[in-house]
Amino acid sequence: MRDEFRSECAIASSLDVLGDRWSLLIVRDMLIGHKYTFKEFSLSKEGVATGILSKRLKCLEGYGIISKRKLPGNKKENIYLLTERGVSLAPLIIEITVWGDANLRDYNKNLNHYEMLKADSQSATRKVREAYIQFTEGFLNASNQTLQ
């Protein structure tokens, strides 16, 4: 985590944290794909190297975008969950997806088709946020029950 940003600009400062090739993809995988382990992130189609993945996870944790904890019932494995700060990136993820779908399909014929894009951006954002929160609550509740 850096102590200094390159400028006072909110866009530049945000890019200092999220503007690399991997951070928003990790957030996407968590928010939309409900991934939560290092192994799941490393198996994503984009093929992030494990060393880079480790650095990005530490950076995202350092800025309070994700939290790291041990998997209940398996104290060796870490799990990563978005914090409220991380979940608040949902509108950005949705808008980038909408923009890419509208502007890059001519250049990349293999772009994914997201069901959520059939709704307006605000509805899609709300659905993605709600689904993630429901996933984490269900995941944590199920994990806690296995310990009792």
Termini separation: 37 Å
Radius of gyration, in Å, reads: 16 Å
- List the secondary-structure elements in sequence, H or E: HHHHEEHHH
Sheet with most strands: strand arrangement: 1-2
Can you give keywords for this protein?
7 helices, mainly alpha, 148 residues, single chain, two-stranded antiparallel ribbon
Task: Describe the protein's architecture and organization.
By secondary structure, the protein is mostly helical. It contains 7 helices and 2 strands; from the N terminus they run H-H-H-H-E-E-H-H-H. Strand 1 and strand 2 (74-82) form a beta hairpin. Helix 6 (90-103) crosses helix 7 (121-147). The radius of gyration is 16 Å and the shape is globular.
Present the secondary structure layout.
Blueprint: H1 10-18, H2 23-31, H3 38-42, H4 50-62, E1 66-71, E2 74-82, H5 84-87, H6 90-103, H7 121-147
Antiparallel strand pairs: 1-2
Question: What can be said about this structure in brief?
Answer:
About 55% of the residues lie in helices and about 10% in strands.
